[in-house]
Amino acid sequence: MSNSFYEVKVVEVGEDAPLMFEEKMMILFNDTVPADLKSISVVHDGDSLTQDIKAGDEMVINDEPFKILFVGKKANETMKELGHATFNFNGDSHSELPGTVCLEQKQIPEVNEKMIISFRR
């Protein structure tokens, strides 16, 4: 797996985002993030997603790969429109929430401004 099809640079990490990381979640948004969600979000500079994220792809955070196990039916739509989805690092292969992407259960690395988050297949 080395073909990166979507790459974003983190421009801001909300002050409460680490609390979400403790819950094994990362909320990703581009600069359209609503003010009431900004404090819990990882804000990025990415353009619109051009290829759908699929189960079997990998999300790479600071060179650490995470296998994608499930993609909710609305997640690609919101990634294309808002650069937004909720990424749950819980090891589940299903979610009732349509905007959720589930990944293998591993510790989320420290997320900082200017770091790259990418998706590859």
TrEMBL record:
Domain of life, source organism:
Bacteria
Residues of the signal peptide? none
Residues bearing Phosphohistidine are 44
A Pfam family this chain is assigned to = PTSIIA_gutA
Q: Report the SUPFAM superfamilies cross-referenced here.
A: PTSIIA/GutA-like
PANTHER family attached to this UniProt entry: PTS SYSTEM GLUCITOL/SORBITOL-SPECIFIC EIIA COMPONENT, PTS SYSTEM GLUCITOL_SORBITOL-SPECIFIC EIIA COMPONENT
Instruction: State the protein's name.
Output: PTS system, glucitol/sorbitol-specific IIA component
